[in-house]
Amino acid sequence: MIDLRSDTVTKPSDAMRKAMARAEVGDDVYGEDPTVNRLQDMAAAMLGKKAALFVPSGTMANQLSIRIQTQPGQEVIVESKSHIVRYEQGAAGALSGVQLHWVSGERGIMTAEQIVAAIRPKDPYSIRTALICLENTHNAGGGTIYPLSTIERIRAVAVRHEIPMHLDGARLFNAVAATTLPPASYAQNFETVSVCLSKGLGAPVGSLIATNDSTLIDKARRYRRMYGGGMRQAGVLAAAGIYALEHNIGRLKEDHDNAKRLARKLQQIPSVSINLQHVDTNIVIFDVIDHRLSPTALVAALKHEGVLINPIGGSSFRAVTHLDVSAKQVDEAAEVFARVLGN
Ligand code: TLP
Fold first, then answer.
1. Residues whose CB is less than 8 angstroms from the CB of residue 242 and which lie 6 or more positions away in sequence, other chains included
2. 290 in Cβ contact with 146 (< 8 Å)
3. Whose CA is nearest to atom 3 of ligand 1?
4. pLDDT confidence of residue 132
5. Which of 146, 263, 274, 275 is positioned for an S-S bond with 136, CB 3.0–4.6 A?
6. Among candidate residues 165, 180, 175, the one with its CA nearest the CA of residue 195
7. Burial, 46: exposed, middle or buried (Cβ in 10 Å; 0-12, 13-18, 19+)?
8. Is 58 in the pocket of ligand 1 (CB under 6 A)?
9. How far is CA 35 from CA 20, 190, 226, 227, 304, in A?
10. Per-residue pLDDT at 291
11. What is the pLDDT of residue 77?
């Protein structure tokens, strides 16, 4: 099976599993797991932040970042197709009591002007804008890279209005691999940054929240416990994360090349509509037009031929490349697409 549903489907390699088996561990709720502490220090340093906290998932990282920077009854600016809006089960409302203010970006990228327009006036009647969240790369936008200059312009607006910023950097390292910009050049524009180890980096579990503010880290640790994310001998998982950061960032370029390769082949299929210029990283979004099969039937037909992808609404589909898919498998998948979609 060639699994292009997500980069979350990657399995730990033998070398990663060896690192996990060897990990020195302790009780992380006491802050005594040396491997977790090492991972946190390493991630903080890479992102140019003072501290980081290891958490079980990207969703928890986002939700803790919202919880520690807002009060119930306040508002958070988010992009309308962001993971926080679409895929976190309404957690910001349920767990932080905040309202989300959706702004529709171009392939997920908002502009500083849009942010200015979305910030509520500081009058006695308006809800208070407490936080601005960006997503880089933007998943539903198609793995879109936020131009650093756009982030910097949004940052200037946020500073002027004294509003903190959070980055959902689940795939920040894809942006880093594609642009060769240092991770800190992105991260320095945000009070909190989350990154995922369990997507293109190939670890089985885990995300981190990084910040310069020790009060925020203390709060995040407390709420992590409240949310049930306080882990014990988590060094076994952190070891996978350390391995991922040490070995799997450089190779993300291969996934980007494979995504482009797949997109070029999809473009040859008459029923497929795709813009090659819109494939920035490892996510390929395309439409299948006027096909006799429904999206569900198409996905089933592809699965029958050994290729898995996700339908993402309407006539759109998402294929994601990752470290468990080789260039040869991309070619095989493309042949399956041609066969199934060509009919
Ligand atoms: N994304 C998953 C699904 O939940 C959609 C995927 O297959 O792409 N931020 C972003 C930008 C994400 O894409 C994801 C996961 C998360 C946060 C949440 O990470 P987890 O799944 O670890 O909670």
1. 19, 35, 38, 39, 42
2. no
3. 87
4. 99
5. 146
6. 175
7. buried
8. yes
9. 10, 26, 23, 22, 42
10. 80
11. 99
Which residue's CA lies nearest to atom 21 of ligand 1? 58
- Cα separation, 58 vs 6, in Å, equals 14
Q: Which residues have a Cβ under 8 Å from the Cβ of 222 and sit 6 or more positions away?
A: none
Burial 197-235 (b: 16+ CB within 10 A, else e): bbbbbbbbbbbbbbbbbeebbebbbebbeebebbbebbb
Residues 8, 27: Cα–Cα separation, whole Å: 27
Peptide bond before residue 137 is cis, with ω within 30 degrees of 0: yes
Please state, in angstroms and as integers, the Cα–Cα distance from residue 174 to each residue in 98, 135, 145, following that order: 30, 12, 8
211 in helix, strand or coil? strand
- Give yes or no for residue 8 CB within 6 A of ligand 1: yes
**CA-closest residue to ligand 1 atom 15:** 58
**Tokens 């982030």 -> residue:** 151
CB 135 near ligand 1, within 6 Å: yes
Q: How far is the CA of 148 from the centre of ligand 1 (A)?
A: 22
The pLDDT value given to residue 78: 99
Indicate if ligand 1 lies below 6 Å from the C-beta of 196: yes
- Ligand 1 centroid to 59 CA: how many Å? 7
What parts of the chain have a pLDDT lower than 50? Answer: none
Instruction: Please check whether residue 16 is in contact with residue 240, taking contact to mean a CB–CB distance below 8 angstroms.
Output: yes
Residue 108, Ramachandran bin (φ over 0: left; ψ between -120 and 50: alpha; else beta): left
Is there a contact between 232 and 27 (Cβ–Cβ < 8 Å)?
yes
Could you read off the pLDDT of 211-243 as tens digits, one per residue?
Answer: 999 999 999 999 999 999 999 999 999 999 999
279 vs 287: CA distance, rounded Å: 14
- Joined tokens for residue 123: 């009058």
Q: In testing the pocket of ligand 1, which one of 5, 87, 134, 171 has its CB within 8 Å of the most ligand atoms?
A: 87
**Nearby residues of 200 by Cβ (< 8 Å), 6 or more positions away:** 7, 10, 171, 173, 174, 248, 252, 255, 282, 322, 323
Q: Which one, of 274, 253, 261, lies nearest residue 322 by Cα?
A: 253
Residue 246: phi and psi, rounded to 5, are -80, -35
Q: Determine the pLDDT at residue 343.
A: 66
